[in-house]
From TrEMBL, chain A:
PANTHER family: CELL SHAPE-DETERMINING PROTEIN MREC. One of its GO terms (biological process) is regulation of cell shape. Involved in formation and maintenance of cell shape. One of its GO terms (cellular component) is plasma membrane. Belongs to the MreC family. Residues 134-274 form the Rod shape-determining protein MreC beta-barrel core domain. It comes from the Bacteria. Coiled coil: none annotated. This is Cell shape-determining protein MreC. Keywords: Cell shape. It holds the Pfam family MreC.
Automatic annotation (TrEMBL), chain B:
It is a multi-pass membrane protein. The gene is mreD. It is found in: Cell membrane. Its main location: membrane. The keyword Nucleotidyltransferase does not apply. The keyword Membrane applies. It comes from Azospirillum cavernae. The chain crosses the membrane at residues 12-30, 75-95, 107-129, 141-161. Pfam families: MreD (PF04093). GO terms for biological process: regulation of cell shape. This is Rod shape-determining protein MreD. GO terms for cellular component: plasma membrane. Belongs to the MreD family.
Length: 290, 170
């Protein structure tokens, strides 16, 4: 049996509920817009909240990403069996070429070592790799990030470089306890100071949510050629100089200079988060990194 | 006949099905599929689910529920907060207003209706991201994502009907 006193509460609550119900759409729209503004202003606490939620859901994401990865691997292996002969031929040719390069690299390494002893160069700080598995991508047209299975307890820090395959793919922007988020080079918010390898021209690599990134702040008459390699310049102190980033694919008046990242960003399965131990990599207090 | 505690608990659990299924689809939508250029155009499964439940069980897919799911999606995908929340709330409101039309119509009309909602949602998302980044972003990926989502609609719709029958028609 219900107590009688609840009647007055119900009488009071009913119109309030009706009012809230009536304006719920407007209220929620306003709440969404308010959230967008809060996200812009209070990006640090939003990041923390985001990291918590991602942490909480990462076991589920991890679990459901495994069957998908397995299925993809099975399909890929079927395709690979079909192309095994051609692939073998190609790899043999490539191997022969790489053996020549290996000789060159060994010679250069010994030469480098002897020159270093002559000049008393201080050795570069040692680097620590953290290998992590990619468990999720946003599935949105306007955001290019990856969620990976390594977090604070594995030693991941904000601002660390993410490397995969043949080069740099992005930077850690958010660290949870056992998951973290990597901002890819092609995201609209990504900016990496780079240098063109042969012309030594400095520029900033900026993503625009397409598969290729753009070079900003190049002087108007700089001699950029298609096929030129782009590497990090080390300016800004976030990444060390000389990390491979990509290759110039097109130079035009309207589209500017486009750079294709070395690694196919849609196929990254495992990546390495690298702490280069450079001074000034702690960007935890800087709100501009999203 | 009075309902016992367990019956009420069972009913509450069943009534959670639309929310649970939609939240699960948020996660499923984030699965990485190693196909070139797939991630930017991955279908927006959440919107299909919100559309379906708003038409068939508006009492269980209220604006607040749509908002919560959008917020969860915003937090998980790492984009600006509030964009998906806004998109889902507006979509829920638009479908709710035309619910009678949708309820009485055939599957093909439902599909066309969804395509229209998807166009609106893609445009809204594009607008929000463009304003937040203070540039004009290309609209094309959002439209392709919309196309793929519309193509996914029958398959996911069938699945949702199964869930609907299994949990809510008992």
């Amino acid at each position: 049996m219900k107590p009688r006193s609840s009647g007055s509460v119900v009488r009071l609550a009913a119109p309030l509920r009706a009012l809230a119900h009536r304006f719920s759409f407007l209220l929620l729209v306003l709440a969404s817009i308010a959230l967008m503004m809060v996200g812009k202003i209070e990006s640090l606490s939003v990041d923390t909240a985001r990291a918590r939620v991602t942490d909480a859901f990462s076991p589920i994401l991890d679990a459901i990403s495994r069957p998908a990865a397995t299925a993809a691997r099975v399909i890929e292996s079927v395709v690979e069996v079909e192309n095994a002969f051609d692939e073998n031929q190609r790899l043999k040719a490539e191997n022969a070429r790489l053996l020549q390069w290996k000789q060159a690299a060994l010679r250069l390494e010994s030469e480098n070592a002897s020159l270093r002893t002559l000049l008393r160069v201080t050795p570069e700080p040692s680097v620590n790799f953290i290998t992590a598995r990619v468990i999720a991508t946003p599935g949105s047209s306007f955001v290019r990030t990856l969620v990976v299975t390594a977090g604070r307890r594995d030693g991941v820090k904000k601002g660390q470089a993410a490397l995969a395959g043949a080069g740099l793919i992005g930077r850690v922007i958010e660290v949870g306890e056992w998951s973290s988020r990597v901002l890819l080079l092609t995201d609209i918010n990504a900016r990496v100071p780079v240098i063109l390898e042969s012309s030594r021209q400095r520029a900033v690599l900026a993503g625009d949510n397409s598969d290729q990134a753009r070079l900003l702040y190049l002087p108007p008459e700089s001699p950029v050629q298609v096929g030129e390699r782009v590497v990090t310049s080390g300016h800004g102190g976030l990444f060390p100089p000389g990390l491979a980033v990509g290759v110039v694919t097109s130079v035009s008046e309207r589209g500017g200079v486009r750079v294709l990242p070395n690694t196919d960003l849609s196929r990254v399965e495992h990546l390495r988060l690298v702490d280069f131990g450079l001074p000034g990599t702690e960007f935890d207090s800087s709100p501009e990194w999203k | 006949m009075t309902t016992t505690f367990w019956q009420r608990l069972d009913k509450a659990g069943r009534n959670l099905a639309p929310f649970a299924v939609t939240a699960m689809l948020v996660l499923v939508g984030m699965i990485r599929i190693p196909v070139p250029a797939y991630a930017p155009v991955a279908p927006n499964l959440t919107l299909i689910s919100v559309y379906y439940w708003t038409i068939h069980r508006p009492d269980l897919m209220r604006p607040g529920v749509a908002f919560l799911i959008g917020l969860l999606q915003d937090l998980l995908i790492g984009g600006p907060l509030g964009v998906n929340a806004l998109m889902l709330v507006v979509a829920q409101w638009a479908v709710m207003n035309q619910r009678r039309v949708f309820l009485a119509s055939t599957f093909v009309l439902l599909w066309i209706g969804f395509a229209m909602v998807m166009i609106g949602a893609a445009f809204l998302q594009w607008l929000a991201f463009s304003v937040l980044n203070a540039t004009i972003l290309p609209l094309k990926p959002a439209l392709f994502q919309g196309l793929l989502t519309v193509a996914m609609f029958p398959a996911l719709g069938w699945l949702l009907i199964r869930v609907h029958r299994a949990f809510l028609n008992g």
